[in-house]
């Protein structure tokens, strides 16, 4: 048990700050649709084909446009993508509301980048993934260590004093209360970073090889991008194939021969941007393939539920409040763990002089 306690303290001291920042940034992102504050964010969704098609044709004619994230019921603006960091918000009638050349001009974008990549791309994802695995270790070992002292449990939202014993006591008791929510947040977050870990989590729902194959994006080979793609015809064909689905993301080819991709969300899908997709030949607009997310293997469908649970895209206000509690608890637990480990460590006890040493003086 002493070894477990030592491992818990050392990993908390080393990784706690990352987890605290993940908890804080994640909590802020839960409410981004409320604080962006641009005109049109609260507009009702207009998902009819004529409106969406006209807006798409207008926005994709903008020089440098690479794709569109369509409005939804929570956020009434479309996001137009121009390149690595540049973009714009537009109304559902196709009027540009605001533009930016760098992510630093939009707080919701750089906070999202920090939460997912630590501003370091793939390397940052690895750090977050390792911190997520450490977070799972914290929850499990913390529950084991708490069991020894369960009779002294006291629920306090804040430590009684800012001394090390009081903080450790508070850390232990508030941690056991938040443990179930923390476990859900950390597991679902880590699933989106480490595919082998995710496959292990959803293994009870179906064979791992089948799930992995279903999650791999299909590869197609088409012609070069046409000068004026017929987006209206593509959207009409997509609506014919999936009449109840919402248009979510339109993306131009990333490289030569890649298709134009359209993602859609069917009513039964939890993922906010859906996994139902259609690939169009960039030269002719013909359908190369269509994927029905509801026909995917059970393991893949279970994996697609991780992000909606993690980001409170399902469950309404109740689940968002619970995730807020989880995020704030992670922020508090992580920051206090670092504080007590590095700045409030107990002073080593002075060793008494041996009698022999005293006799020789």
Topology of helices and strands:
Elements lengths: L1 H28 L2 H4 L13 H12 L6 E3 L8 E4 L5 E4 L5 E5 L6 H11 L3 H28 L15 H28 L3 H7 L6 H8 L15 H11 L4 E6 L8 E6 L10 E5 L6 E5 L6 H6 L2 H5 L5 H27 L12 H5 L2
Antiparallel strand pairs: 1-2, 1-5, 2-3, 3-4, 5-6, 6-7, 7-8
Question: Could you explain the architecture of this structure?
Answer:
The chain folds into two domains: 163 residues; 124 residues, no CATH class. The protein is 50% helix and 11% strand. The protein has 13 helices and eight strands. The protein has an eight-stranded antiparallel β-sheet with strand order 4-3-2-1-5-6-7-8, covered by helices on one side. Strand 7 and strand 8 form a beta hairpin. The longest helix has 28 residues. It is elongated and about 70 Å long. The protein starts with a helix and ends with a helix.
What's this model, at a glance?
This protein is an alpha+beta fold and 361 residues long. It folds into two domains: 2-34 and 110-206 and 310-342; 44-90 and 220-296, no CATH class.
């Amino acid at each position: 048990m002493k070894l477990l306690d030592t491992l818990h303290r050392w990993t908390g001291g080393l990784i706690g700050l990352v987890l605290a920042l993940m908890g804080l940034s994640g909590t802020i992102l839960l409410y981004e649709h409320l604080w962006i504050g641009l005109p049109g964010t609260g507009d009702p969704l207009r998902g009819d084909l004529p409106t969406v098609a006209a807006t798409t044709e207008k926005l994709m004619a903008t020089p440098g446009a690479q794709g569109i994230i369509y409005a939804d019921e929570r956020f009434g603006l479309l996001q137009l993508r121009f390149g690595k960091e540049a973009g714009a918000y537009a109304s559902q009638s196709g009027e540009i509301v605001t533009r930016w050349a760098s992510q630093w001009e939009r707080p919701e974008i750089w906070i999202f980048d920090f939460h997912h990549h630590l501003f370091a791309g793939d390397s940052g994802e690895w750090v977050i993934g390792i911190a997520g695995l450490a977070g799972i270790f914290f929850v499990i070992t913390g529950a084991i260590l708490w069991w020894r002292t369960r009779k002294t449990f006291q629920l306090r939202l804040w430590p009684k004093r800012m001394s090390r014993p009081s903080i450790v006591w508070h850390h232990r008791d508030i941690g056991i209360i938040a443990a179930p929510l923390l476990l859900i947040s950390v597991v679902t977050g880590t699933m989106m970073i480490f595919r082998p870990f995710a496959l292990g989590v959803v293994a009870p729902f179906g064979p791992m090889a089948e799930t992995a194959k279903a999650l791999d994006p299909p590869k197609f080979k088409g012609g070069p991008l046409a000068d004026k793609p017929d987006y209206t015809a593509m959207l009409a064909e997509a609506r014919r194939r999936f009449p109840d689905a919402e248009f979510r993301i339109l993306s131009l080819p990333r490289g030569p021969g890649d298709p134009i991709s359209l993602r859609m969300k069917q009513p039964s899908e939890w993922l906010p941007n859906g996994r139902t997709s259609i690939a169009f030949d960039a030269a002719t607009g013909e359908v190369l393939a269509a994927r029905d997310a509801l026909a995917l293997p059970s393991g893949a469908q279970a994996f697609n539920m991780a992000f909606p649970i993690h980001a409170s895209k399902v469950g309404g206000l109740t689940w968002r409040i619970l995730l807020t509690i989880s995020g704030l608890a992670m922020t508090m637990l992580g920051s206090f763990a670092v504080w007590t480990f590095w700045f409030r460590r107990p002073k080593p006890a002075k060793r008494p002089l041996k009698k022999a040493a005293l006799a020789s003086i």
